[in-house]
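Researcher: Here's the sequence for the chain we discussed earlier.
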Amino acid sequence: MEKSDLLAQFKQTAGKVIKCRAAVAWEPKKPLDVCEIEVQPPKKGEVRIKIFANALCHTDIYTLDGHDPEGLFPCILGHEATGIVESVGEGVTSVQPGDIVIPCYTPECREHDCVFCQNPNTNLCPKIRAFQGKGVMPDGTSRFSKDGKTIYHFMGCSSFSEYTVVAEISCAKINPYADVNKMCLLGCGISTGWGAVFNNCKVKPNSTVVVFGLGAVGLAVVQAAKEAGARFIVGVDLNSNKFELAKKLGAHECVNPTQIGDKSIKDYLLGIEKWGYDYTFDCTGNVKVMRDALELAHRGFGESCIIGVAAAGHEIATRPFQLVAGRVWKGTAFGGWKSRTEVPQLVAKVMRGETTLDPYISHFFKGIEKVNETIDALHSGECIRAVLQISEREPVEAPKVTTVSSHRHFNGYVKRMKHFSKVNNCEMQFSIYIPDRKGRTDKLPPVLYYLSGLTCTDENALVKSGYAYFASKYGLAVVFPDTSPRGCNIEGETDTWTFGAGAGWYVNATTDKWKKNYNMYTYINEELPELINSLFPVDGTNVSIMGHSMGGHGALISYLKNPGKFKSVSALAPICNPTETEMGKKAFEGYLGSVEAGKQYDAVELLKTYNGPKLPILVDQGTADNFIKDLKPEALDEVCAKVNHPLKLRYQPNYDHSYFFVATFIGDHIEHHAKALGL
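Model: Thanks. This is the structure I predict for it:
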């Protein structure tokens, strides 16, 4: 069903009781009953979701087997899911019908007086915890029933149903192009393993790690520890069949405790690392293993993290001296992730190709009637994660994005990316600098787009401009697009440096030869920002733009053609009045058919009729610039004076057009943008 048809259907069901199929656990240790239930509309602060896919977690089975002291029956299990918002209750603002979401069992209220949401060291928002434990919604009632009999909620999610109702503060809105049959895994287990490494223990490079239990969570710990740079990772499990995958994900050695002779697992592992391991993780839920994990932590500073959930009534134990000797014993819930804020970022990370979920999905079933087969698969010992597709989603064409390289740089990361551009009908490359945030609760960084000049790629300014010190200082993300499509096999594309490859002029071509591929204006102002905002941790509502040479021209026209979009604009040696220059005339005749048509992409011409917010334009121009006759800064100065548009044009004595000039004044420009962006 197309999304438009689905939204039309949702309009018909909003506010009404929905009858749908669900897998009901009527009592412990019995197969789930797939039957028709009634799902009430969402009340204040609630969201009703049509479920697409659900991954089966051991916690579901733990409850079904009667081990959960909070387990209530009858109930609808399931808490690793993806879905689409069908309707929302009163006061809901963060999601709307049609949004793709992951319901999360750990909520995030984000209220200013919530000491948990405001603290970067925890994710344990207690806003609705008491109600979740009682199997009801925040008003104390359930939204599920069958023939008048109440059915309880489970972990605030209850995703073994075609429709469910959850609290708004449990809804993580994710990228609309995300693969819902994969991203459901981020609702619990995989996220928990990753977060135990990155958030709770903060595993350091060159460290040693032991992981007990190589199910999905343990494997996720292995995968994350490798990404964190651990030098030696040991996986421990009673099932040796899991070792091959563990090693593919990063384990250096795997051990089956039943195959090491008379030695205990502790003695065996201490035979490898005499003083213990920097980090140990229990993913088994076995309290004896938890003790071994702690006592294998390095004397003096080792950390041991409990992830597995123990059966009701079980307690952990060790000699106090183990802690006196400097070991740290800690635990994690949902990997410490702040659900609504950070789960969407995990989805984006997968979509950027920086990590993968593929190895975890060992079984896939279609239809809610296959739910008990899913449970059987999990019990088989051969299953990592079984995904149950409850409803089929209409096909969506996700952006094809690949991370070409990633480098640590000035307290942040520089990532070079390639993707298929629909507007340019070809593969494009761009680079982005993302600064570290000082704290997890800090705001996302605003974005500065830097457009480069003739012949440049996305790498020139990235490497030569000296931007990074200043971007890091202010906490500013910087995007470096390419200057044109490339490799389109258009005759004459590489004949000259002022037209074609490396010289897209930030216009939308209209001539037959170029219009299929050369649409850089729409690429810069629409397609690329949409991609950046959906795949990177940035504030896409707080944006500025600048450029050098042809890129300065692109920055000026983007500002003037999009009133109110940018918070600030600046340029270094921009081509100000291209319709009055030979290279500009050639470009516009080639791309647009005439110089007259080029006036819609000429800053001087656009200023004559501009009636939007008048942002102060900062321009630096070297007096020794060999291209100054083609740049025409005097024309920009004249028109700004005539229309009373604020312009700060600074002539810099003896500076030329090169990156020596750019690097000298880039700091002033970034400061100009940082102030406008509220930094």
